[in-house]
Amino acid sequence: MSIEFANSPQLQKFKLLLVEDDKAIVEGLEYYLTQEGFEVSCCYNVKSAIDLVGKTSFDLAILDIALPDGNGYDLCKRIKKMGDIPVIFLTARDDEGSIVMGLDIGADDYITKPFRVRELHSRIKSVLRRTGKANKNINEDIITIDNITVNLKEGKVIKNGNIIFLTALEYRLFLTLLQNSGRILSRNQLLEYIWDVSGDFVNDNTLTVYIKRLREKIEDDPQNPNIIKTVRGLGYQIESRSIN
């Protein structure tokens, strides 16, 4: 089996900048987001963050507001001037004035502490999609795997020349597996990827149904799947990949 991303280089990880002076939060988020496939750089103050942004290209920045040598508002302004980097504020300041100020100066989202890490993960994905960063690793709009072609621009899946109708969640699930080909995704990871803050929610039981329905539509023999493999006790995987 081979997967071709038309004229695309090796897929890269999204690079996140995390600026937070609470080391417990930093350690927890760094571990979680790294496990989810992100490349995370951590800073504990404004100065180190500005230095790092000047040297490294980031896809998104997560900023606290109260920092030892300044504040996240000023840092957000500096980051926005230095490049097209989406910003999410992650802060204990939950008053309306702070939220409005954060959004007014250019932040793409605002999350208050205490927070749920799954919600933060979903907000990150949502911001990456809205700002066009989510497709940065695919130069063209076509993914081909065996006799299946996915047209990303048109949102179409074609098998043997015929269009296959996928629901929005089936399409999102298939694209998630394709874009993580070669990597085993646990059921919890898949739930994270296809759950969205807009209201679409999939639980563990319905995930099984979606996998079954997706296989029925794309596999030649759904009972013996050749594309979406089950890795017993670990999750699901589209195994090998050849990128040209």
From TrEMBL:
GO BP terms: regulation of DNA-templated transcription
One CC-aspect GO term: cytosol
Residues recorded with modification 4-aspartylphosphate: 64
All copies of domain Response regulatory, residue ranges: 15-128
DNA-binding region: 140-240
One MF term in the entry's GO annotations: phosphorelay response regulator activity
Name listed for the protein in its UniProt record: Stage 0 sporulation protein A homolog
Organism, as annotated: Herbinix hemicellulosilytica
Classification of source organism: Bacteria, Bacillati, Bacillota, Clostridia, Lachnospirales
